[in-house]
Amino acid sequence: MSGAAKSGPLSHIRVLDLSRVLAGPWAGQLLADLGAEVIKVERPGAGDDTRGWGPPFLKDEAGNPTSEAAYYLSANRGKKSVTIDMGSPDGQALIRDLAARCDVVLENFKVGGLKKYGLDYDSLKAIKPNLIYCSITGFGQDGPYAHRAGYDFMIQGLGGLMSLTGEPDGMPMKVGVAFADIFTGMYSTVAVLAALAHRDRTGEGQYIDMALLDVQVAVLANQAMNYLASGKAPGRLGNAHPNIVPYQAFATQDGHIILAVGNDGQFARFCAVAGRPELAEDERFRTNRSRVQNRADLVPEVAGMVARKTTAEWIAALENEAVPCGPINTLDQVFTDPQVIYRGLKQTLPHPVAGSVDLVACPIKFSETPAGATTPPPSLGQHTAEVLGTLLGLETARMDALREAGVI
Q1: Backbone torsions φ then ψ of 82, nearest 5 degrees
Q2: Pairing of strands 80-83, 37-42
Q3: Coil, strand or helix: which one is 122?
Q4: pLDDT of res. 198
Q5: Tens digits of residue pLDDT in 111-138
Q6: Band of residue 3 on the pLDDT scale cut at 50, 70, 90
Q7: What's the predicted TM-score (pTM) here?
Q8: What is the Cα gyration radius of the chain?
Q9: 103 is catalytic
Q10: Does the pLDDT value for residue 5 go beyond 90?
Q11: Which residues contact 330 (CB under 8 A, 6 or more apart)?
């Protein structure tokens, strides 16, 4: 971009983030990436639970661990941290005053948990009628499980994902990141954006009820439809695909490779590269339908062929013939991959405690309104004086008194 610096598409939006751990903070982080001013309210002296979820912790310039856990850093870039005691009447009044000056509130307390503080939707709507208020819970605001605590691991199990993940003869497995939390954060962001669009058109705010279980079931995608269409519950296939063959990881001479054959032409080209062109003409394997039906016969044949060459040899040969394939990288390999480097998926920002911090960058690239954090995840209470002074107009003496009382 040339000329004057441009701001993100949500630079006119202010968000009050009352959430902690992952699903809510992930939504707040994405809104911050899109340019919104996101004010994160945390407990004085303790903050978000994830600040202590380590090691590893961010290291300072001398190589010593700081108090900033990597987990916390993963979900809070671009925000401002304000410490307020939600349990005190003065703290509740401050949060209400902040909400009155915000467009969106995010929270992930238990059902009804904020009502006693006067921070529930009805209470805040009374002072900000066009507020967008997004509640994130494990099971939603109603139903037989509404009052249960919901955690990502539990939801992956209850919501069916673990029944699809892992080797056929092994233990059901969760995904290696908090899948349900992250997807719920993403869906919550989409919901907030839709509610803002509706408000722009009608002037109406609204309440958004998001549940980890709802999202987990929704993103079962083709596997959910495999069940609904057939009446048969899919099982675990390890790295194999339920509807495409061969589409899985195979052992090579020196490691593993992902072979992702998406159509019959790709399969024919793979067989030619592998020196077995006749397999593509075999009636058992000629179409994807027949390959899925005869998976047990084909997969050992492919495994035997793949084992004869190294991963690099296969990638070079198959990419030359436009057969989709790739390595299984460790994270050190991910962040040294030429494409990852070129796309700028790691960014380094100044940090008030450590000097600098490496972060994962926002993956969204706009042509006109840049997305991405320009500030690092905040240290605890870093912006309390700034936000309360600038946004609420509190004078220094008043903040000193609140600080002395433990409210901020």
Answers
A1: -125, 125
A2: parallel
A3: helix
A4: 98
A5: 999 999 999 999 999 999 999 999 999 9
A6: very low
A7: 0.93
A8: 25
A9: no
A10: no
A11: none
Per the residue annotation, which of 33, 120, 181, 214 is the catalytic one?
Answer: 181
Cβ-based burial of 363 (10 A; exposed 0-12, middle 13-18, buried ≥19): exposed
DSSP state of 52: G
C-alpha–C-alpha distance, residues 132 and 147, integer Å: 23
* Nearest Cα residue to 164 out of 154, 175, 153: 175
Whether 381 and 81 have beta carbons less than 8 Å apart is answered as: yes
3-class secondary structure, 170: coil
Residue 152's φ and ψ, nearest 5 degrees, are: -50, -50
State residue 159 phi and psi, 5-degree precision: -85, 5
**Residue among 253, 240, 246, 245 at smallest CA distance from 306:** 253
**E strands in 286-362:** 325-326, 346-351, 355-360
Per-residue confidence (pLDDT) for residue 2, from 0 to 100? 42
**What's the CA gap between 384 and 312, in Å, rounded?**
53
pLDDT at 234: 96
Number of helices (H), then strands (E), belonging to the chain: the values are 16, 13
Please report where in the chains the tokens 């039906």 appear, as a residue.
Answer: 293
Beta-sheet pairing, 104-107 with 132-137: parallel
pLDDT for 6 equals 78
The pLDDT tens digits of the residues spanning 265-310 come to: 999 999 999 999 999 999 999 999 999 999 999 999 999 999 999 9
Which residues, at least 6 apart from 224, have a Cβ–Cβ distance to it below 8 Å?
160, 217
Six-digit token string for 349: 């920002």
In sequence order, the 6+-apart residues with CB closer than 8 A to the CB of 271 are 277, 278, 279, 280
